[in-house]
Automatic annotation (TrEMBL):
Keywords for this protein: Methyltransferase, Transferase
The tRNA/rRNA methyltransferase SpoU type domain, residue ranges: 25-168
GO molecular function, one term: RNA binding
Protein name: TrmH family RNA methyltransferase
Amino acid sequence: MRKLSMEELNRLTVADFKNTRKFPLTLVLDNVRSLHNVGAAFRTADAFAVEKIWLCGITGRPPQREITKTALGSTESVAWEYAPTTLEALQQLKAAGYQLIAVEQTTGSVPLPKFQVQANQPYALIMGNEVFGVDDEVLALCDAAVEIPQFGTKHSLNVSVAAGVVLWEFISRMSAGTTL
């Protein structure tokens, strides 16, 4: 066994990536304060061919050194948009037919493995602030909430790790038996 070279990985160029079909998933960052988490979200969105990232409220926007360092160039490949409030972004997404899914532990949240993902339904996955989670006003607009089952002593995962877990779960179910 050996590691594959960059040439063997056969990755798309940024231009080719921008023109390739994406999964009908949008990642919404609700007042995420860490620029490193924002950069990691970009990198994960690139890896999973996500349509767009919405950066809302106090969430940092490129170009910023900490975002760029973690994103490794994915701020150039992944489409993104800024909204002064998460509510504004969600209203646009709802009007466009997206199902709004909070990634949050709530009284009505569904364990991620039990959530029924529809292959062609566009989803907006809302990731909350590192300390306060998804804002209560934002939760009120959401169609559902999912939570990642955890078995340790901590009550939550880092927001960028949680985004990766949830995106992978949605994408693996959306793409079962299909390719992009």
